[in-house]
Structures are given as structure tokens and as C-alpha cells.
Amino acid sequence: MAHDSANHDAAEAAPEGTGSTPARLADPSSVGTTTIAATVVQKIAGIAAREIDGVRTMGGGVSRTFGALRERIPGGSGTSTSSGVQVEVGEKQAAIDLDMVVDYGASIVDLARAVRRNVITAVERMTGLEVIEVNIAVNDIHLPTEEAEPGTSRVQ
């Protein structure tokens, strides 16, 4: 730990635009810093992933269950934009993990490539952070017959 604090002190003493100042986030001629919360990156990544055709929903089984409950509560927040998205955000870089359900028939390899490209583009464009990795876990496939399951709607 002492070694880390020595490096941190050296970075603080470095001229503006180098060391600990994120080159993409801070203009060397400006005064102050810009901090981007992990929840902001989470939301951007979640929205960007959902924009791709073939992504049915985000999240694993438990988070999807809680999302379904939230949708049924009057005045509830509905579907969370950050469900199924985990991020690690540093000063200059971000790593993103996505859990998703895809539509049956979609090429998972092509879908993952498109999602990864869209998420990286959106996060880097909006935040200036370098996205070093986007890990995608496909947890389920949505079958067309799942929408018409008997018993899902009591009123016809």
C-alpha cells in the first residue's frame, strides 16, 4: 500500500494532462475534473445493447424476475436500463459484463459482435473512457411460443 500512495503522490505532482488526469476526460487547459459514475456507464451500455435486434432482454434469471415484479407494481420503475449490466470504471478505462437473453434463430456470434461494437462505440463516444473489454453471457434463448403460453393472461 505504501508503494501505491507514493505513486499516487507522484501522479498528483505531475503536470496537468499527464499522470492521473484522464487524457480523454480532462482538457489540459481547463480547471477542474470530470468524474463519470459507474451507473452512468451501466445505463449507456444497457441501452446500447438493447438497441441491437435479436436481444430480447437483459439480465439473468433472478434480475429478470425482479424486473417483471417491478413492471407489475403500480408506479414502479418498470424495466431497469442497467439490469444485466455490470461495469468496472477506472479513471481512463471501463470493462463491461453483459447478461442477456436472445431471440431464437439469431446468430449468437453475429449478435454478440454487433452488441459489443455498439456498446463500445456508445460508451467511448459519450464518456471518453476507453472500453477495454465487453464480456457477453447469453443466459437463455427466447422461443416464439413463450409469448403465447397459456395462463400468462387471464383476460382475453
Salient structural properties:
alpha+beta; 2 domains; 4-stranded mixed beta sheet; 156 residues; Alpha-Beta Plaits; single chain; disordered N terminus; elongated; 4 helices
Q: Give the low-pLDDT segments.
A: 1-23
The percentage helix is 25-40%
Based on Cα principal axes, name the global outline.
Answer: elongated
Order of helices and strands: HHEHEEHE
Distance between the termini: 65 Å
CATH homology-level superfamily of the largest domain? Cation efflux protein, cytoplasmic domain
What structural class do the secondary elements suggest? alpha+beta
The value of Rg in angstroms is 20 Å
Tally of distinct domains: 2
Strand content: 15-25%
CATH topology of the largest domain: Alpha-Beta Plaits
Task: Give the CATH class of the largest domain.
Answer: Alpha Beta
> pLDDT average, as an integer?
77
Q: Tell me about the largest β-sheet.
A: 4 strands, mixed
Helix tally equals: 4
CATH architecture of the largest domain: 2-Layer Sandwich
- Number of separate strands: 4
